[in-house]
From TrEMBL:
GO terms for molecular function: amine transmembrane transporter activity; carnitine transmembrane transporter activity. One of its GO terms (cellular component) is ATP-binding cassette (ABC) transporter complex. This is Glycine betaine/proline transport system permease protein. It comes from the Bacteria.
């Protein structure tokens, strides 16, 4: 019998014992970032937040999305889930930010280096197809319970789309445009920053949209390890057999997901 799980367990235990200071530093850094997002979102009065998001939705996604944003966010506040929604949004924003900081450069690297692309493709397949619950196990062992392991698992789960679509966007830049830029004496960095990335931006923004959606779905699952937010409301509804509470938490998640999806799609189209 091949016991792959045994060797993975040994590897994770070795990492936990030998890299404890590193994981503590990461825990403090990510935890501080989540707290900053959370405090900033809760500091804004709910009515001002709703107005700002409605205006943003109006300009980026149209009148229909603005109306949905206005009444949807008011419904969340009316159900009494405003604090939990801001906690979820803070976790999504912090996780997405780290995923983009890591994923976009990695996507550029895979687009420009075929050898790295061959190595990254199966790694991304593994990250994207592995059941989301599996990521919670090492996250808890490395960081304990709370929002930080939830963010760690979310980053791993949500990063592949932005890597893939950044890679695709850079590769799809027409070769004649690239050759024209080179013929005018563009350096590799100028070619990347002034030609390839601007033309690939709509595709990259689609990757950002998918990363946000996957972050939101994973944040709900991360409630199982005390990440808090709307996922905790849904989890209470499941564990305590409170059907109404579970549906209310689910409706709040759906509203937040639709609002974020429409706004980011609008940003991609505008770009």
């Amino acid at each position: 019998m091949i016991q792959i799980g045994k060797y993975i367990e040994i590897a994770i235990q070795w990492l936990t014992e030998n890299f404890a200071p590193f994981f503590d530093a990461v825990n403090s850094g990510i935890g501080g970032g989540i707290d900053v997002f959370n405090q900033a979102l809760l500091w804004i009065p709910f009515y001002l937040f709703i107005i700002l998001f409605t205006v943003l939705a109006w300009f980026k996604a149209g009148k229909g999305t603005a109306i949905l944003t206005f009444f949807g966010l008011f419904l969340i506040y009316g159900m009494g889930f405003w604090t939990e929604t801001m906690q979820t949004l803070a976790l999504v924003l912090s996780s997405t930010s780290i995923a983009l900081i890591l994923g976009v450069p990695l996507g550029i690297l895979t687009a420009r280096n075929p050898k790295i692309s061959k190595v990254m493709r199966p790694v991304l397949d593994l990250m994207q197809t592995m059941p989301a619950f599996v990521y919670l196990i090492p996250a808890v062992l490395f960081f304990g319970l709370g929002p930080v392991p939830g963010a760690f698992a979310t980053i791993i789960f949500a990063m592949p789309p932005v890597v893939r679509l950044t890679d695709l966007g850079v590769r799809q830049v027409p070769k004649d445009i690239v050759e024209a830029a080179r013929s005018y004496g563009a350096s590799p960095s100028q070619l990347l920053l002034k030609v390839q990335l601007p033309l690939a931006l709509p595709t990259i923004m689609t990757g950002v949209n998918q990363t946000i959606m996957m972050s939101l779905s994973m944040v709900v699952i991360a409630a199982m390890i005390s990440a808090g937010g709307l996922g905790e409301i849904v989890l209470k509804g499941i564990t305590q057999m409170k059907i109404g509470l579970g549906f209310e938490g689910g409706i709040a998640v759906v509203i937040l997901a639709i609002v974020l999806d429409r706004i980011t799609q609008g940003l991609a189209k505008n770009k």
